[in-house]
Design goal:
Elements: H1 3-25, H2 29-37, E1 44-45, H3 46-53, H4 57-69, E2 73-77, E3 85-89, H5 91-102, H6 105-115
Antiparallel strand pairs: 1-3, 2-3
Length: 119
Amino acid sequence: MCIITKIKNIQKILYRLEKVFLENNGITLNEAIIIYSLPETRSSCAGYLSGQLDVSNSRTSKILSSLEQQEYIIRTMGQADKRQMLFSLTEKGLEKKKEIQRSEGEYRELIKSLAKFID
């Protein structure tokens, strides 16, 4: 199999994985990464979360807004620096985190199917 075909097949599997994840959980993979990255007992700043996602600050801001609208996270002002926004999980966010953790096994087969395309 040529490398271009392998890349295309990997892309299809990743697309399917994202689609299944969204259908099963009601949130995107990027939203799930934010939820996973937020500690259960304290807040994190947007810059840290942007680094966890490895996406632009602008994209992170959109994801955070979406999670805030869905009531998975709350935004508060920093104590020392009022310009800094801090994000933490709500009770609903904590439940979503646990729900995703319980369903991790469902995605293992899709991830395993990627291995056959990697030399």
